[in-house]
Every structure is written in C-alpha cells, then in structure tokens.
Amino acid sequence: MVQQTLAFLAWIVSAAIVMAVAGTIVGEILRFISGRVKGDRLAWLVGDLSRGEAFGLGLLLATFVVAGAYTAMSGGTADYGGAWIHYTVGAAVAFAVYAIVASRRAS
Asked: Where are the domains positioned within the chain?
C-alpha cells in the first residue's frame, strides 16, 4: 500500500517537474514574442503577456507537445490520451505551485 502511494506521488511529481520546465520554456518564448508583436491581428492574443499569463499559456501548449513527444518516444507502447492526461495533471500541479509561490511573494 505504501509503495503504491509513493509510486503515485512520484508519477505526479515527475509530471509536474517536466511540465514546469516545459511551461517555463514555452512561456518565456511567448513573452519574447509578445514584446515584439505590434500588429492588431495578434496583439489581442499575445500582446504584452505577464509572467503568470505566459506560464499558463506555456503550460497549455506544452501539455500537447510533451504528450506527443512522450508518445513518439515510447515506440508505440503508450497512447496519446493517457500521456496527455498524465501531463495535464502535472501542469495543474505546476500551476498551483506557481500560484502559491506568486501569492506569497506579493504579500
């Protein structure tokens, strides 16, 4: 029972770490692009993103990319839906940790 609980926690923590790193990378790329967008067609979507907005959008985009990469690297043994759920749970945990840390810094 304890071993199964630890395995489940490791599953969540590993996905959260992967998604935090991937979300940060994609979020910083989005912030870099958003600072240079001047056209009206894209400015409403990515114009001048804050760190939290960029991290959230980065997590959203990274869930699809990381799940696809995981499925492709598995050699056909993993399905995309299961991988997407796994990394979506990790993204939710990563965003919750970010929100807790950001709220403590603000106060």
From this structure: 2-106
